Request: fold
Amino acid sequence: VIVLFHDRFVDRKECLIDIEDRANQFGDGVYEVIRVYDGEFFLFDDHLKRLEYSLNEAKIKYDINHQQLKELLLELLKKNEVNNGGIYIQISRGIAARSHPFPKESKPTVIAYPIPTSRPLDKQENGIQATLYQDIRWHRCDIKSLNLLGNVMAKQHALDIGASEAIFYRDYNHVTEGSSTNVFIVNDGVIQTHPANNFILNGITRLYIKYLAKQLDLPFNEKVFTVAELKEADEVFISSTTSEVIPVTQIDETVIGNGKPGPIAKQLLNAFFEHHK
Ligand code: PDD
Reply:
């Protein structure tokens, strides 16, 4: 694997990250996962905009040169012969002796490399089982930060009990998102999802679904829903860069709707497929 390390391309073995990179000790950095279809980045500008938002909110001083970064990342795809897949990009606050305050002077560490990704067709066609999990994370989930311990613990719990995704709730009146996805419910044709605030990551796929909903004339409502509303919904589905749209057909013991992927999720998936064969 060839890695983009700052503005150089190096072999994975030569990409030496310092032990005192703040990503290591503090998870002090931010990241993006961008999907590649047919050699082209999908929603690149939206991902870069969110990366800038995360950097700003975390007060990491790094000026992104959009055009230059895009060229470097396209070069990265070429060097790794990626035509369909994804790239991971991470920017940490940089290297400094371990101490909590921001270092006075540090140069952010930038790395990017391809991550194999393919369309999860089986899950998209048949739906998945999810489990509820208390949202044990912090209150700045809008920052796409490297601190993912809460997400990782939730995901592993889901897999341990035979489910595929953990759906977070802050309390029974407040479902937030999945461990690595956004969550939607559908009732009488109306799509509902958590508003974009500090309790969720404003998913780029979530925003794309909002756009698709408009194109398809499907009402889209950004409003908090409860655990009871989640379980009683006609349809539930999740979204992310790598999942696109995946129907949820069971949550713990509760079967959603008739236990089969619902029509709205299918409609959105078809729209996805039309754009990216
Ligand atoms: N995860 N919520 C959380 C907590 C996420 O980690 C993600 C994405 C999303 C969906 O965002 P988007 O549509 O922009 O991918 C929502 C990425 C893919 C990951 O960490 O691998």
In short: The longest strand covers residues 29-37. The chain has a mean pLDDT of 97. The helical segments are 22-26, 44-57, 66-79, 121-126, 149-160, 204-215, 227-232, 263-275. Residues 33, 151, 177, 180-182, 201, 203-206, 239-242 surround N-(5'-phosphopyridoxyl)-D-alanine (CB under 6 Å).
